[in-house]
Structure formats: C-alpha cells, structure tokens
Amino acid sequence: MRIRIFCDLMLACAAMLTCGAASLRAASPATYVNPVLRHGQDPWIVKYDGRYYYCCATGSGIAVSASSDLHRISRPRVVWTAPGKGWNRSCIWAPELHPYGGRWYIYYAAGESGPPFIHQRTGVLESVDDDPMGPYVDRGMLYTGDTPGVPGSNRWSIDFTLLEYGGKLYGIWSGWADAADTDKTEQNLYIAEMSDPCTVSSPRVLISEPDRQYEQGPLPLNEGPQVLRSGDDLFIVYSCGQSWLSSYKLSYLKLKPGADPMRRASWTKSRRPVFEGTDEVFGVGHASFTTSPDDTEHYIVYHSKIAPEPGWNRDVRIQRFGFDRRGRPVFGRPVPAGVPLPLPSGSITCPSEK
Fold this sequence. Notes:
Layout: H1 2-24, E1 31-32, E2 44-48, E3 51-57, E4 61-67, E5 77-81, E6 90-100, E7 103-111, E8 121-127, E9 136-141, E10 157-165, E11 168-175, E12 188-196, E13 199-200, E14 205-208, E15 222-230, E16 233-240, E17 249-255, E18 267-269, E19 275-276, E20 282-291, E21 298-305, E22 314-323, E23 329-330, E24 341-342
Antiparallel strand pairs: 1-24, 2-3, 3-4, 4-5, 6-7, 7-8, 8-9, 10-11, 11-12, 12-13, 12-14, 15-16, 16-17, 17-18, 17-19, 20-21, 21-22, 22-23
C-alpha cells in the first residue's frame, strides 16, 4: 500500500511539472473532452509497444503519427504520396496500419478519378523495416474479386482490414457485387484468405449485406469492418446506413464458436444497431478499437458528423466501452462534445487544453 501511495504521489508530481500552473487549477481527476480531433474521418489507431499510432489520409497521400496518449493525437507525418498517374492517383480513403511479421502494412482505398467514385480498389504499402513511421514501399493493388488470376475480374473495394484467426490470415472489406457505372451502388462485406499481407489467395466470400431494416435508406451500405475480440468471441463491427447522414451507425457480426470464417453461415448479425447518434451527436461510425495505456479499459475511436445536415464534415472522438455478461460489446450512447470524461486509465500526462 505504501508503494502504491508513493507511486501515485510521484505520478501526480510529474503531471504538475509537465502541465504547468494553468492545468493545476483544473478539476481533479484529470479529464479530456471530445472531439480529440476537430476535423477528421475514418479514424484508425493501433497500440504497439506502449504507443498509439494514428493513420489517416491527407488528400494526396497517407500520414502516420505517434503518441504516448490515447486522448492526444500528434501531428501526422506523411509516409506516402499518391503517384501522379495510375490506378491509385486519387481518392485516397480510410487507411489502416497493421503490424505483421516484423513489418508494418498500410491498407488503403484509392481510384484513378472521382467523383463518381466508381474506380475504388484496395492497395497495400509495406514498411522497409520494423518502424511504423516508415519509409514504405508501394506493393500495389490487392485482388478483391471472385476469380483470382482472371484479368479484369477485380472488383470495387474499400475499408480493407486484417484478421488473424486459427493460424490463418484473412482480409475483410466492403465491396460491390459487380462492376457498376454509378457510385450509388449497394455495398456488402466480404472475406478472403491471404497467403501473406500483400496477397489475397482465394475468391472472396460474401458475409454480410444490408438486409436489416436499420441498414436501409437512400443507399444501403455495409462498410468499415473492424475486428473486435472478447475472450474467445470474435466480432466484426461495421458501419451501416449512409455515411453522409445522421443515421450512420454501427452494428456487428459474430463468428459462431469454432466456425469457419469463410462461410457466410458462420456469422450472425446483431438484431439492432449497437452504437448510433443522438439529438446532440450525429452520424457516428467507422470505428477502430484499442485499450487504455495500462490495458485495463477498452476504447472505441470513431468519427461523428459536425452538423446534422448531409455531408462529410466530421470530427474524431474516443469513448470508453465494455462488454456484457455474454461477452457482447456495449458501447452505450455517444457523449456530447465538450463534456469532461476521465482520462484513459494509466495516462500520466495532462489533457490538451482546448
């Protein structure tokens, strides 16, 4: 107990020295407020060796930042710039940063032109060493269609993410069933096996389409799939509704125990949304998941529309969540902007002053 008290005093002193007199007048315990980024979308945060790496699109490329604080996102550094010509010269969307086998991989969506956004495909970057801050090498376009090896059979795809399960590697993404000449096309979720992080090695398998009432609307979408684990349970949390509307929300698929993820029947869908907006928080979606600095708390990182009017003007927020007795995620309601929230457990620096 004496050691615990001594450690608490030392942490408190360190916080005082770091934050200055202005922060000493702040309420205790220390807090943060949402949004943690006033402008941003499709947030991806991965925790590795005690640091949080945030990956984002810059408009013409991809950037990565590192921070010891979950609630404080540092200024990103550009690690890749789109080429002046080719399939991936434009429309850079929703990059994700993943460690695997001593290297880092960034998966991103891009197209040769847009709007209309009918050319989107998935690309992958590979780090030259074990540094997530780069440099990176462009490993080209991934195959996300039905018949690998057949020219012209690739299909529209975005929001690619990795799943390691049962000693195998899989890719999961949002895509179109067929080629289309309009971006007003329904989006589904697909899975495929991968022989390595740069190679899809099997035909895709449809695991979800927007078939629930709560997924309907002007353009039914399933997108932004993310892996979430709870003990032995495996979930794919995804966004549905329409990303430009306040009705954007989250749902999930759950893998049946011991089932083959490459079979659609292995997945069950939530009967209702699991995270959605309120009268004060609009259009929540495209989440990623991480833990507090001391790994005792779970956090959802998501974007929200800044105003209820249709559009893609969004900010980035974090919020603590938990699991119920059956192991299912419970996200609660999104907390309005400006409401003080306790710092993630294990944080020893003061929140950014806003």
